[in-house]
Design a protein that fits this description.
By secondary structure, the protein is α+β, with helices and mostly antiparallel strands. The protein has three helices and four strands, in the order H-E-H-E-E-E-H. The longest helix is centred in the last third of the chain and has 36 residues, at 109-144.
Length: 145
Amino acid sequence: MSLFSVLSVSASGMTAQRTRAELLVENLANSETTRTPDGGPYKRKDAVFESASTSSPFSAVFQTEMGSGVTGVRISDIIQDTSEPDKRYLPGHPDADSNGYVAFPKINPAEDMADLIGASRGYQGNIAAMNAIKDMLHKSIDLMK
């Protein structure tokens, strides 16, 4: 495995964690949204990760020597929550039904904040790995001088 391939793996992880963080922020921003253009409350979204082969344009020359065993991560699907929304008794709310209940998204802000911290740490871990690879490349170049 070349160092350039490892950079591709970290880049794929950063892309996946960025998408996950964007979805979590969207969930948090819409945690009180009771009306969407589709009708009804906002539905929570989650990213599904899967391993995927990565290729680096920098390491194309080495691919025949290394084989194609390098895998990274990608978003395979974005799923919406299909569970019933939370009902709250708010008879004066404009979206209240005939019984006075309003449907709210089934979002737990504390859980989404913990997941957001995890996505941030995953992103930071990939940055640290890329910086380590960059340092190795610099030291290799210095050794060849």
